[in-house]
Design a protein that fits this description.
The complex is a heterodimer. Chain A is built from no helices and 11 strands. Chain A is mainly β. Helix content of chain B is 0%, strand content 50%. At the A-B interface, strand 4, strand 5, strand 9 and strand 10 of A face strand 4, strand 5, strand 9 and strand 10 of B.
């Protein structure tokens, strides 16, 4: 079963704009991770945020985590055509697994 | 590149057959997890192997089984293939068991299995 649910399911923006994706989850977590997937290939790890962190940055990526609302957001600034991909959030809790959401399909138009 | 390699990249099997997928983990990683990703869905956890033992399993039937070898590489075996087993199978390696601490998982490129 999917724990995380991404919102929106699909997002289309112009190159240079910012893209924001949201993720909600149901149970307590140790950390939350964001991944990118290009055209049904392997998942690329983007960033991990711990349950005691509220915000984290990596290059053009900014992730926030609100454990009281059980939600996270991923912001990609100054998007590029190469950012076109599916983005997934995954939670890690006491169970020895990552639980993924259903993903957001991001399309960046040149 | 993550250093996690999977083989084969694509595979076509007939319903009822058996299949073995392989994964080489990143150097230094002792944990391998397997995921099934149906088209348009997020990956679903199958199981995790830590130091050659299965120590976590998702909601998959016993015909999904695995092995982890002393070098921490791993195999996923699926018996009595069904049409619904058609999916992308992803292997992830990590420095430690997922769910402990703040362990990152690094994925291979996947094996695309088609059951006809």
């Amino acid at each position: 079963s999917q724990q995380g649910e991404e919102d929106p399911q699909a997002l289309s923006i112009q190159e240079g704009e910012n893209a924001t994706m949201n993720c909600s989850y149901k149970t307590s977590i140790n950390n939350l991770q964001w991944y990118r997937q290009n055209s049904g290939r392997g998942l690329v790890h983007l960033i991990l945020i711990r349950s005691n962190e509220r915000e984290k940055h990596s290059g053009r990526l900014r992730v926030t985590l609100d454990t009281s609302k059980k939600s996270s957001s991923l912001l990609i600034t100054a998007s590029r055509a190469a950012d076109t991909a599916s983005y997934f959030c995954a939670t890690a809790g006491s169970a020895r697994q990552l639980t993924f959401g259903s993903g957001t399909q991001l399309t960046v138009l040149p | 590149e993550t250093g996690v390699t999977q083989s084969p990249t694509h595979l076509i099997k007939t319903r009822g057959q058996q299949v073995t997928l392989r994964c080489s983990s990143q150097s230094g990683h002792n944990t391998v997890s397997w995921y099934q990703q149906a088209l348009g869905q997020g990956p679903q956890f199958i199981f995790q192997y830590y130091r050659e033992e299965e120590n976590g399993r998702g909601n998959f039937p016993p015909r999904f089984s695995g092995l982890q070898f002393p070098n921490y590489s791993s195999e996923l075996n699926v018996n009595a293939l069904e049409l619904d087993d058609s999916a992308l199978y992803l292997c992830a390696s990590s420095l430690n068991q997922l769910g402990t601490g703040n362990t990152e998982a690094f994925f291979g490129q996947g094996t695309r299995l088609t059951v006809v």
